[in-house]
């Protein structure tokens, strides 16, 4: 079926420019004027029923046959990712009986009169077709009507038919051409509904129910989305009367899906994928994204494909097959579909010839110039394209296919004449422009099926592209990317947001995705589940294991990790900008299709349990592990973030999947900082938002209740030091003025010249580390004084903390202390925000909490305006000794 679909695609490709309004050129003077043949042929009758069904009838009495075709705008391009393959499965199910016919009865009826029937699914349509003796034309109409409008989707028939489709899928995996093209689809058409195979995937096909298929039919099988074609020995009036009677009763219940051309993906190549297998040969496929069939460039691209590698006389075939004898076969063509297109190059060769062939092929394209095409080669290409179009009319089935394609996709029969005029006007200059625009190394995607045991390395092949076919991506990115400092916030589907923070100082990109949720999406029995999910999330995709992901990213100097917070969940990545085309698809699969391998979940559990035990071995880590449950009564802040060992061990893969499903459906904020292709990043972010986000998933930041018990004492035997945390409740970040003052106060207290360090360590020698900490969520926060000291000095340290609070209450800070604190804040800010990742994290984290992405800078600016008296009032309001909490860890 794949070969049939591909040929259908090639047929559609030959009519790429219908509907344009440019003046028609004169035909080539040294060639036959095919437009004469079109104008001399009698035009078909085209009409539309009241329900919107288009009907085309073409009388042709050459044979005592009638062909009936029903086209529906319902193919794999109309599917959602979770529906991948449903169009094709429906095509199978229409043969399993209808409301008026038992399974197999339709085929018996058609074949009993000497006819044939079939159906086909492509990206942009499904077609049902019947060919019968001319006196049985009504049976043909009745049959396609039953198939399209009355299919009986019996659950008992569906299950075995899914096994048939899965067997067909397996057979396709065994066919190198099919497997190769499937690999290229997701590389050339990422983020579109063309990236998955028409037949779907094993998991999607297996998951479909009868209700799923019925819902799909109800959505897309509308009369206004259909074309009925009847050709052969018929009477037009009789046919139209019967069609009106048989098809006029059906009503439209849904609007027609809007079809718009997909933008070309960002030029982030070259990207090469090598798939070893039990093959005897190397099968190579190269794809370049090109515009859709409605583009003004489509006809020229067809000519380019035909001219370069469209037959045994083409330059590529002559050079690499006939002269150099490096390949068994090589060809090129331009496949243009309703919304996307691909310039495709395929070759079959022996593994030992690959290195030489690859180098010479790259050199060939690096030096490619339209002037190398002779007049004869150009005219031959155009003649062959026109010839193939006319030869389809030899048979009634071919005639119906050709007429149907022009009517269904290009809006009318004038499209054929227009196409032939456009074909005639294509010249060498146009081909040169198309080569320069689309056949570029940064737009190249490649897939190879290689014999097992051969040493063929994708990275080496990519490096060869860069060496032999100079990259142009840097220049293009500079033209497309926003200038440094031109920050943009872009609304995404489902309420998500993209923030672009360009900085072209270095050719690196940092990417941060933040969701609200984290521990806040758990109940008390699930403490530690968010952390475990973060550890397991990046450990498997449908086509890569954890170690393969690690190796793949390491080979590209890239990194990616997920993390869970008290009320956020994040995914952060960093990579060289020139590897964006390699790593972004991997990140996308990590987030949209994690596989949660059981072994990797077990490893994640092992890591998390080890981390818990390690923290419990360290006094200070123990204190910070338990500080939140000590302070808060409820909500995510009261949880043990990593959970308890027994809890973690007991979590099931199903719990992880359920948590990720509800977590990932929240609207997110993605911030990207560094050098990047803005269009490519926006497309990536839009795909994630469309795939993940679901409406109605809102997160509310809580204001937790504080515990009434204010003293906690923990013990770790055989340790030397004691640790003291004195904690004061303070407002959250939603109070900007208080946050600015508290931030300034923390700076005044901490650091080696801060008040706490100076008085308790330098003057009194109470401990090695003495500092102040400030933690804030949107609706709550705390300031803590910390000291690590000898156990016998704990009381003295606590008294020192109390004196500090009293001092802050009694007198304003000296001006020099205040200025030092202000300078510390400014210095910390710029020191902490030097890296690209720190900036992307900051923007995403703040925005997802409903705060301004520049809030930290705003706090510093506001802090610069504060006076000593302001800090004294702040201390009096929030640093209340009698309200403080004390947490100690003793030997």
TrEMBL record:
Query: Which part of the chain is the Peptidase M16 C-terminal domain?
Result: 207-385, 668-825
- Gene3D superfamilies annotated for this entry? Metalloenzyme, LuxS/M16 peptidase-like
A single BP term in Gene Ontology:
proteolysis
Stored InterPro entries: Metalloenz_LuxS/M16, MPP/UQCRC_Complex, Pept_M16_N, Pept_M16_Zn_BS, Peptidase_M16_C
Q: What is this protein called?
A: Zinc protease
Q: Which family does it belong to?
A: Belongs to the peptidase M16 family.
Secretion signal, residue range per the UniProt entry: 1-18
- What cofactors does the UniProt entry give for this protein? Zn(2+)
Q: Name one GO molecular function term.
A: metal ion binding
Peptidase M16 N-terminal domain span: 55-199
**A Pfam family recorded for this sequence:** Peptidase_M16_C
For this UniProt record, give its keywords in alphabetical order, as a comma-separated list: Hydrolase, Protease, Signal
């Amino acid at each position: 079926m794949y070969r049939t679909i591909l040929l259908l695609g090639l047929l559609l490709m030959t009519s790429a420019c219908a509907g344009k309004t440019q003046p028609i050129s004169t035909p080539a003077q040294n060639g036959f004027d095919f437009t004469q043949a079109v104008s001399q042929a009698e035009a078909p009758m085209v009409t539309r029923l009241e329900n919107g069904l288009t009907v085309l009838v073409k009388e042709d009495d050459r044979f005592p046959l009638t062909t009936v075709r029903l086209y529906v705008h319902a193919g794999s391009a109309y599917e959602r990712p979770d529906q991948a393959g449903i169009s094709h499965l429906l095509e199978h199910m229409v043969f399993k009986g209808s409301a008026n016919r038992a399974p197999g009865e339709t085929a018996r009826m058609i074949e009993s009169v000497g006819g044939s029937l079939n159906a086909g699914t492509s990206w942009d349509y499904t077609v049902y077709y019947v060919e019968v003796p001319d006196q049985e034309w009504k049976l043909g109409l009745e049959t396609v009507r039953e198939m399209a409008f009355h299919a009986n989707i019996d659950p008992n028939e569906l299950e075995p038919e899914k096994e048939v489709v899965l067997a067909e899928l397996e057979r396709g995996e065994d066919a190198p051409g099919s497997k190769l093209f499937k690999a290229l689809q997701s590389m050339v058409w990422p983020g579109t509904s063309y990236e998955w195979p028409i037949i779907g995937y094993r998991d999607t096909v297996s998951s479909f129910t009868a209700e799923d298929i019925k819902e799909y039919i109800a959505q897309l099988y509308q009369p206004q989305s259909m074309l009925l074609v009847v050709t052969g020995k018929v009477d037009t009036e009789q046919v139209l009367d019967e069609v009106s009677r048989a098809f006029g009763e059906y009503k439209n219940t849904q609007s027609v899906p809007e079809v718009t051309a997909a933008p070309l993906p960002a030029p982030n190549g070259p990207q090469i994928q090598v798939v070893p297998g039990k093959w005897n040969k190397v099968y190579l496929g190269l794809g370049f994204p090109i515009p859709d069939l409605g583009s003004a460039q489509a006809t020229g691209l067809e000519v380019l494909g035909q001219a370069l590698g469209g037959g045994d006389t083409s330059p590529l075939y002559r050079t690499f097959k006939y002269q150099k004898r490096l390949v068994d076969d090589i060809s090129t063509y331009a496949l243009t579909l309703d919304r996307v297109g691909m310039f495709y190059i395929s070759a079959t060769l022996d593994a030992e010839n690959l290195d030489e062939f690859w180098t010479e092929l790259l050199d060939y394209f690096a030096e490619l110039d339209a002037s190398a095409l002779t007049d004869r080669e150009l005219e031959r290409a155009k003649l062959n394209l026109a010839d193939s179009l006319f030869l389809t009319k030899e048979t009634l089935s071919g005639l119906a296919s050709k007429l149907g394609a022009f009517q269904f996709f290009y809006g009318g029969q004038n499209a054929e004449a227009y196409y032939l005029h456009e074909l005639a006007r294509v010249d060498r200059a146009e081909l040169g422009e198309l080569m320069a625009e689309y056949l570029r190394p940064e737009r190249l995607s490649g897939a190879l099926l290689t014999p097992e045991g051969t040493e063929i390395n994708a990275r080496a092949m990519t490096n060869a592209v860069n060496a032999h076919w100079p990259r142009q991506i840097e220049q293009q990115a500079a033209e497309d990317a926003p200038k440094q400092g031109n920050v943009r916030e872009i609304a995404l589907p489902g309420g998500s947001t993209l923030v672009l923070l360009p900085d072209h100082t270095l050719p690196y990109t940092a990417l941060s995705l933040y969701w609200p949720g984290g521990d806040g999406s758990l109940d008390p029995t699930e403490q530690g589940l968010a952390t475990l999910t973060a550890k397991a999330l990046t450990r498997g995709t449908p086509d890569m294991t954890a170690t393969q992901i690690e190796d793949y990213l390491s080979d590209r100097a890239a990194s990616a990790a997920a993390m869970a917070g008290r009320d956020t969940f994040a995914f952060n990545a960093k990579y060289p900008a020139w590897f964006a085309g390699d790593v972004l698809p991997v990140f996308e699969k990590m987030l949209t299709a994690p596989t949660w391998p059981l072994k990797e979940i077990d490893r994640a559990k092992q890591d998390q349990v080890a981390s818990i035990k390690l923290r419990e071995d360290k006094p200070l880590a123990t204190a910070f592990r338990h500080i939140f449950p000590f302070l808060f009564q409820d909500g995510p802040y009261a949880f043990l973030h990593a959970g308890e060992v027994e809890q973690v061990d007991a979590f099931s893969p199903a719990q992880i999947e359920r948590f990720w499903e509800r977590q990932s459906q929240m609207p997110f904020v993605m911030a990207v900082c560094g050098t990047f292709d803005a269009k490519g990043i926006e497309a990536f972010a839009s795909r994630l938002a469309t795939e993940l986000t679901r409406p109605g998933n809102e997160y509310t930041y809580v204001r937790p209740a504080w515990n009434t018990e204010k003293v906690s004492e923990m013990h770790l035997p055989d340790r030397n030091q004691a640790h003291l945390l004195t904690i004061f409740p303070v407002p959250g970040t939603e109070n900007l003025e208080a946050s600015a003052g508290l931030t300034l106060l923390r700076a005044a207290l901490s650091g080696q010249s801060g008040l706490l360090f100076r008085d308790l360590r330098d003057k009194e020698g109470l401990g090695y580390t003495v500092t102040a900490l400030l933690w804030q969520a949107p609706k709550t926060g705390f300031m803590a004084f910390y000291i690590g000291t000898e156990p016998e000095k704990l009381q003295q340290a606590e008294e020192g903390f109390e004196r500090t609070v009293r001092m802050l209450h009694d007198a304003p800070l000296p001006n020099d202390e205040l200025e030092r604190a202000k300078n510390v804040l400014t210095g910390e800010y710029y020191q902490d925000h030097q890296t690209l990742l720190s900036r992307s994290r900051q923007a995403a984290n703040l925005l997802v909490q409903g705060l301004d992405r520049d809030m930290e800078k705003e706090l510093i600016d506001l802090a610069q305006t504060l006076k000593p008296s302001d800090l004294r009032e702040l201390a009096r309001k929030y640093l209340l000794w009698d309200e403080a909490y004390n947490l100690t860890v003793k030997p």
